[in-house]
Amino acid sequence: MESEDDGERPGPIHDAAIECDVEALRSELARGVSANQRIPGNDNTPLHWLCYSDKADWAIGGAECFHVLLAAGADINAACDIFGDTPLSVAACRVHPSLQLLLEAGADVNLRPPDQLEGGPWNLTALEKVIMCRGYGARRRRAYPILLRAGSELPTAQFMQGERDRLGNGNGQGVFSEPYIEKVITAGSLANYERLHLTKLTSMFQPKFPFLPKEVIQRVVEFWSHAGDY
Is pTM, for the whole model, over 0.70? Predict the structure, then answer.
């Protein structure tokens, strides 16, 4: 039987998820509570809340909670109706430990939830969400190459122009500056940018090791530098 929430309060299953409490989570599921139970008013599922959790030991209890929810039928691509947030976009914006688990489990990196709220657009991919969610600071940018390597499409030109307009109109939010994404877009793909980046780094190190073949230097740089990731 489904548990009932009052107003817009999360239910016990959401509390268990955000606390990474595996036993409490199993108990709620055993009582018949859906792994996809929504919070009235914002539509967040337990999986959303698990990706919001800031527990220091998330990699222990959180990872187990993640697998318990998926085994119970949790929708890995569930989108909330407020801003179209998915577990993946939540995890990506926070560069959360759940990000890699979601990708390994097959989360859709190019999902565009329906745009159901004025003031959007909110029907954004996880990558576009990360670019837009500036409140998470510069650390969110660590998610860019992770999402791109997982197959994320590059942001649309319309989206990028919208962000320039939004942040360059004197509203005090700052100037739009995403040099990494801009470079990848200019290169046409992450693979192209990675090749250009690797070539540039190799040319920087080659004069320092004149007795080594260029191919050897390039291979060393390739393994050492994570070319294309910055």
Answer: yes
